[in-house]
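Hi support team,

I submitted a single chain yesterday and got back a structure, but I'm not sure I'm reading the token output correctly. Could someone confirm the output below corresponds to the sequence I sent? I've pasted both exactly as they appear in my results page.

Thanks,
R.
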Amino acid sequence: MAKRVNKLGRLRYRVTLQKLTKTRNNESGDFEDTWVDIDTVWASFDALSAKEYIQSSAETSELVGQMEIHKRSDVDTECRVLWDGNAYEISGILPIPERGRLRLMVNQGVRV
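Hi R., thanks for writing in. Yes, this is the structure output for that exact sequence:
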């Protein structure tokens, strides 16, 4: 019997990379921050820690994790990742040259 191979591998989630840009509001003429899609790519995700705490009388949470994507030159810590209805801030990027990938250190929620 032939062995089945998982064709998806670790990069099994579709995520959208976004970059913060300034756009001019046509009505007021002021510049506003707008998130613009860069690309939708395959990624892995590993949660590293999760915290829940009370801040200013409101319960809040934070998730810290890492995502891995194929190497690209247009991603930096000014970008963010959208996945599964959540926005993740990129706090650091580690190249993995031997695999041709980038490891994105991400967090979602409030940081204290």
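A quick pointer for reading it: The CA atoms of residues 48 and 111 lie 15 Å apart. Let us know if anything else looks off.

Best,
Support desk
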